[in-house]
User: Fold this.
Amino acid sequence: MARVSNKVKTTNDIELKDRLVAINRTTKVTKGGRTFTFSAMVVVGNEDGIVGWGLGKAGEVTTAIAKGVEAAKKNLIKVPIYKGTIPHVQTARFGGADVFLKPAVTGTGVKAGGAMRAVLESVGVTDILAKSKGSSNPHNLVKATIAALSELRDPMMVARNRGVSMEKVFNG
Assistant:
């Protein structure tokens, strides 16, 4: 079966909201003193199935965040959202971070920790159970969460490929 790419082509007509996940400060000691640089991990999304992440580095925090937002707009993905949750259980791993995403009934809310919560709220998920296992590094958690969301399969496509109705897909 051919895998369809879920990359978003244009960002012109999409209203994206950005969320700051983490800021790191690094110091370089030179003969003239200390030089500080900042890196900002940013997640952007339209809260309706589109999400992306970016990393910006600069000498000032505001510039690093702006660069992160621009980088995030360049790698957006489309995620299938079904009744405010994801269509099926999904796991993914990036580096030392291992994430587990499970659909939840309406009214559950987003049960997820810091970096995962930012990604899930940016994509528009309102009800989900999520667990991060392994590393708590926000960079790897964001990348693992995006990887898990990109591997989700749309229920309409699954029903069409199998030749069955939507009810048959969800009620097994």
About this structure: The mean pLDDT is 89. DSSP finds five helices and eight strands in the chain. The helical segments are 61-73, 114-123, 138-150, 155-162, 166-170. Residues 61-73 form the longest helix (13 residues).
